[in-house]
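Q: My labmate handed me this sequence with no annotations at all. I'd like to see what the chain might look like in three dimensions before we decide whether it's worth expressing. Could you predict it?
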Amino acid sequence: MTIDEIREEIATVDTEIVDLIKKRQSLAGLMAHEKVRAGRPPVDPAQREQVIARAVDRAVEAGVDPAGVREIFLRLVQMSEDKQRGCMGDGNLP
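A: Here is what I predict for the chain of 94 residues:
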């Protein structure tokens, strides 16, 4: 592959990543509505740790830097928690 072809492939992967983040945020909104219905708070520290541990374990299995994956998932989970808070009326998100 040429440099330009590799860059094009990376751009495609980047688009897929953004699309998956959008999907994750949409699911966080659905989760917020279910948590309201169940009378549960937007943040579940035990679930947060499970999600991050699962991602780190998968990174190790895949041969990807687990520390980097941990950082990414900390941010993704924070974004989901922020989305849930906003959907539940606690914050400034729609």
